[in-house]
Write the structure tokens for this entry.
Amino acid sequence: MRPVARAFVALAVTFVSVVLLGSSAPTSSTVEPMCPGGSNPSADVVLCDDFEDTAFQARWALGSHFNRWPFADFVLCTGDNFGFKSRCAAWSNLLIFDNAWGFWGYDSRRSFPPQAEFYVRWYQYVSSPYAWGPLEDKSVMLHDQANTLVAYVGTSRNHLPVVPDSGPGRPFVANYQDVDVDETGGLYNRVNRFQNQGRNFTLQPGNWYFFEWYLKLNDPGVSNGVTKLWVGDANASQSAETLRMHYTDMRWLQTQDAGKRFGVVRLTVYDQRCDIGPNTCPPNGPAILAQSHRWDQLVVSTSPIGPMGAPAAPANVRIIR
């Protein structure tokens, strides 16, 4: 594994010192029908958070880079348009240099019942202005509850011109278990997976976006897991329902990971590798980046979720436009 990858995994393990707290459901007027407390709750839904109440610190394990930012500000409610179709949203805060090669602010986690096949849906806002990291920007991450598995949807990964489906603001999926090891015969390194449906989508600062991520774990050591990613304009349901990525050869679990399941969702932004960009790391660049991401309407379910306000899809069915 590359030094950067090892360092970030070490950050993940270090964060375990913050105790993961319970997953009690929020109560608010914006609860979606399928969520606990909604008008038609679904047994398939294992986590919902719309960040509309004041009890988020009882649900999220919160960290802050150098303890710079107060945990009470992880959720902010500042005006009618702060959250997606609501007043409040979680956010990443201003990003602080990590004294190595990147910037991050808040690092927040919430546990859910471990799953082998599930969907994660959220809405995400990119501040304006926003300068993408010279290599990548992490976003919504998944771990097992022992923090030995790492996978995430990032908002940007740039391997241009070698990988034409990559680039600034291009969402992608990273899987830190899918690396060259003896059990694969050293055949490949498939950590980063890019949009592959001929409908590449690029995020623009100043907008809200819809994300839905599907994962199905593989047989341990066998590359037969699945991932799908839908990304689109949060205000256009047709765009939101467009499939951008689909792979059926994922190796989420190495042989040694038999029995593990994803069971923690993590919100953070790591604007990575300023050391490979001109004048972007201190002392030649700023110590704090005046930019952030926001998240809202987070749902984890064993069945498809879809955009807010859309009719629930039948199990294992997704309309692809």
Q: What stands out?
A: The radius of gyration is 18 Å. The chain has one domain: 3-301. DSSP finds two helices and 21 strands in the chain. The domain at 3-301 is CATH 2.60.120.200 (Jelly Rolls).
